[in-house]
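Customer ticket, subject: "Can you confirm the structure for DUF5590 domain-containing protein?"

Message body: Hello, I'm evaluating your service for our small team and ran a test protein. I'd like someone to confirm that this is what the system normally returns, since I don't have a reference to compare against.
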Amino acid sequence: MKQWITFILGFLSFLAVALMIVVIVAGNKPFSEVEKQAIERVENDFLLEDIQQAYVYSNKQTSVTVIGTDSKGALKAVFVPAGKGELKTVPLEGAVTPQQAREIALADKDIKEILHTKLGMESKGPVWEIAYVNKQDQLNYIYILANDGTTWKQILNL
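Agent reply: Thanks for trying us out. I re-ran your input and got the following:
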């Protein structure tokens, strides 16, 4: 009897882990497909030669930020809107780095965990979005302008 209980518990544990993996993979699939399409579009337009990273950035319009170097070796970001739309290319040489943006945004903040730092295009131009959780477990967003490092917008204590 004890062996049956062990077998059933083991099987249910295995089933739970398998279901969690399926949910995670299925949940990330739309993002993966959008990122792949954006990378293909950037490569087809010969905007970047070496792609370092790509991720989805959401504001009023969802876009994919593709960061890499062009044929001359200059670091650039290409903002690819979802669906059809004009690609925007921004040189990152001399711009605020992700580390600098985090240092500017998080100075004198009570941080528990940094969730992400993403570059995206807003009405003011390219911005770094820093999302973090404070020690009171509240979600916060700070937007730093990539051109000069000034704080553009803050959404605090969600």
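A couple of notes from the result: The longest helix spans residues 2-44. The chain has two domains: 2-91, 98-155. Feel free to reply with more questions.
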